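Researcher: Re-running this chain for the archive, since the previous output was lost when a drive failed. Same request as before.
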Amino acid sequence: MMILIRGAGDLASGVAVRLSHCGFPIVMTDLAHPTSIRRTVCFSEAILNGTAEVEDVSAEFASSPDRVNPILAGGKIAVLADPDAACIPLLKPDVVIDAVLAKRNLGTQITDAPIVIALGPGFTAGVDCHAVIETMRGHDLGRVILNGSAEPNTGIPGNIGGFTTERVLRAPKDGMFREIRRIGDCVSKGERVAETDGEPITASIDGVIRGLLPTGTPVTKGMKCGDVDPRGIVSHCATVSDKARAIGGGVLEAILYLQRRIRDV
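Model: Regenerated structure tokens:
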């Protein structure tokens, strides 16, 4: 059973790790120039570097769909630069998971595969996909929704250590992003972390930098370009988050449930 995941950011990668541990062969797609923030736990890095590793799972860049099967045969996740997932008709995956987290549907259809699952708001189970997974932090995080939609996007980041919007670093203007500090660095409130064409981006809270765009990324004013974790635990930068693990569990439940439903028809 081949699983194709649209998106290869931190939540998509956390889902991929969980499914890989269960023995599923996985293909992921993302932008040719990924904008993932938490790069140390993103398989999208394989597009830039040729390979990527998250915890104990390895991925390799596939230059074309023809390269996918040899990579899967080697026990690795195959990552394609294919943001529109144009490879779906060629690869014919058994499961498609939309993990782009765009808060809207960018083209996923319920007919893309026998099982289609989408993460978060912007999708309706039974219309766009067979199941939606709740992504909002709280009581229902990771819940499988078979009818209806996930909670709507509030625009407010989840509360971690008592902080929400303060955790996020945003570009002060359009321009070229440059790192000054690195993922895993501990920073203090007011400290210069990065800059956009010389204009500083400073931390609003004390903590550890858990996510940061790479130097040379074009950004627009207000674009998310980093994340400071107030818990200050450096090891968290290299492991799948609690949120991603919970969502991955929901995805696994949905796959097994829908497999059984198809088999029983």
